Amino acid sequence: MRYLDKKQKLGLLFSLISSENTGPASKLADKLCVSKPTVEKYLALLREDGHNIGYCTRRKTYYLINEKT
């Protein structure tokens, strides 16, 4: 597996959120090869950048709320 830097991981995280294919935070951490607290930090960074991110407990995925395309 190829090493991904933080910027690439943030891009992958955003892509997974956009496609609503993240799974819960623990599985998302595995997909990004980071810890669960790091996933939470990355989500906070995306939110600071203005992305409104929610989590659906029924579907167990993060998603974009009212994201302008």
Which helices and strands, and how do they pair?
Layout: H1 6-18, H2 25-32, H3 36-48, E1 53-56, E2 61-64
Antiparallel strand pairs: 1-2
What would you note in describing this structure?
This protein has helices at residues 6-18, 25-32, 36-48, and strands at 53-56, 61-64. By secondary structure, it is mostly helical. It has one domain: Orthogonal Bundle (Arc Repressor Mutant, subunit A). It has a two-stranded antiparallel ribbon with strand order 1-2. It is globular, with a radius of gyration of 11 Å. It starts with 5 loop residues before the first helix and ends in a 5-residue tail after the last strand. The relative contact order is 0.19. The model has no long low-confidence stretch (mean pLDDT 91).
Write a brief caption for the model.
The protein has 69 residues and is mainly alpha-helical.
- Class derived from helix and strand content: mainly alpha
What distance separates the N and C termini? 32 Å
Number of separate domains? 1
CATH homologous superfamily label: Winged helix-like DNA-binding domain superfamily/Winged helix DNA-binding domain
Number of helices: 3
- What proportion strand? 5-15%
Order of helices and strands: HHHEE
Helix content: 40-55%
CATH architecture: Orthogonal Bundle
Largest sheet: 2 strands, antiparallel
Contiguous runs where pLDDT drops below 50 for at least 5 residues? none
The level 1 CATH classification is Mainly Alpha
> CATH topology, which one?
Arc Repressor Mutant, subunit A
Strand order of the largest sheet: 1-2
Q: What general form does the structure show?
A: globular
Q: Return Rg in Å.
A: 11 Å
Q: What would the average pLDDT be, to the nearest integer? A: 91
